[in-house]
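S2.1 Query sequence (Alpha-mannosidase)
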Amino acid sequence: MELPGAVEKVNVVNVFLGTSGDHGQMSPSASYPFSMLSIGPVTTPHIHTGYEYYAKKYNGFVHTHLEGVGCTGSGGNILIKPILNGNIQTELIKQSQQGRPGYYEVSFKNGIKSEMTVAHNFGLHKYHFPQNKNELFIDLSYALSGRFVNEEHTLSDNSISGWIDTKTTCSRGIYRIYYCLEVPGCQSITEVGEHKLLIEGNKTADLQVYIGFSSVNTDYAKERVKKNSFQQVRSSAETQWNKLLNQIQVTGEDDRVNLFYSLLYRGLQAPYLISEEDGTYTAIDGSVQHSSDAIYNGWAIWDNYREQLPMLSLFYPDQYGDIAKSIANLYPYGKDNWATKHEPSPTVRTEHAMVVLLDAWEKGYDIPLDEIKVFLLDEAEHLDYGAPDKALESSYDCWALSRILKITGDDDLSEKYRQKAMEYKTYWLKDFADLTKNDIDRMQARGLYQGTIWQYRWFVPFDVAGLKQLAGGEDAFIQQLDRFFDENNYNHANQPDLQVPGLYNATNEPWKSQKLFRELLLDTVVQCYFNNNSKGIDPYVGRIYKNQPRAYLRTMDDDAGTMSSWFVLRSLGLSAVNVGEPVYYLTAPIFQSVKLDWGNGKIFDIKVKNYNKDNFYIKSVKLNGETLTRNWLTHQEIINGGELVIETSEVPNKSWGVE
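Output structure tokens follow.
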């Protein structure tokens, strides 16, 4: 059911955003919110999701896509290729294509037309052939980057069912998918090679394929297969996408609105709801379990704990409670920093899960902290301090654990880990204080991961007051921030310094964050770091976020919705102060109005007074009619509903937000 006043948001989502080159690593596949099954094309050549927007040669269509991740990608299971005259080498050359949430279509020069749509862990292909001899080639061993491990399958008159094991991202773990694939009315299914099959169709010009997925067994996968019409499935997918997209309603310039919903769409792909309707699911040790809560999997927490998970926690509480509990539920079954050998879906990594769990608890979500405390303590004892960046990140985890232990009543242990967290100061003074060394702007100097000394030195979100003191006090801290941005040391192509543009909000010059956010969201910037190159090699000058196939900076992966969610939150004028604390900084939205509607009768309205699309400085703010002089809101203030009026100006009000 649509929300009151809702418009068809699926009409403005660009599913081709970020689908060319190393500019987002996204897929145009037909997808469904939080579903591990999505159907999309494989092209030659292709990016990490198997597709390249400008490629014309297609290899077929696959059913798993972990969006925007590195290590040359993950997924790409069960390749289906429509062919002519029994020729497996049939060339599929693109003539035209279109896509929207829940739907993808491509027509080929040889007369074949392919359409696909999806429901939750269910997909439906529809093929039109130029003749009454329709056939499909199936490769059960296909996987992106050659990550296939093993499979077993069973054939019947018109179906294939079984399981497939595949290495997940960076080949650090293995996931198993159970499936059931049905082709109603087909004449035969025959083996034509190891793991490869040929389906002779129904001697008409059209052929449909139904496929269901499960993390548990093939019986559940078969239950997913519904013989609804193609249009019914497609309409249902669009309804579900509209429902989620409409929970945030924005008004403003069309180009901004279209970009916003295209990026919000990217933030709602993962994690995946993997439990069955009766609560059965496969845990990460391979055991079959049962839960009264919905269970999710498919994690990229090291990346998206910073942005996508906080975004979900604010806008999608109905899903997020179970998502957060699912993260807690990893611990009893052998959580590792990366994927295990028995994942129920493609996944990447789970560092900083304890920060996410603290954040969820502080926002009012019911997390079984007492039940997993022993596992959290064990994880803390194995934290890595072996490199300067690891030392800061591990200190953040210790800070979160200290807070968790305080919640569970373990005051002595809480104090132990608080002190352990504060030891970051020793590491910071050793590696990050001195800005005169010649390696401070060199990628991966001193063993750093995906960043520079300049970029990592700010990563103390849990103790900005202490960081200021280490930097020499308020004025010195601001001067160093100024230099960081003036010299173009900030890197939006990766995650380590994503929070830094917001740090002015924690100083007596918050107006500088107001300006920076607008530039990073919509304006021309200079960016100097791509992948592992250091500064000064072919810098980029232009916009970071663009609503086109080459959407992002080069080498800027979306990382399971991380970078999209960064835009979504800040475009509304909100950003997490410190993940683990239920507080958001306030800056100017890029829209004239914003409405957050959770469907529970509470609505939070953000209105921009004296709106001008080019104004980004805040002159004054009122919350529910009362003047607000602080530049932050609590999570509770937002979800309680109400009205926030932000008056913007061409010039900064240097006295606002400095409390």
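The mean pLDDT is 96. Residues 252-649 form a domain with the GH92 mannosidase fold fold (CATH 3.30.2080.10).
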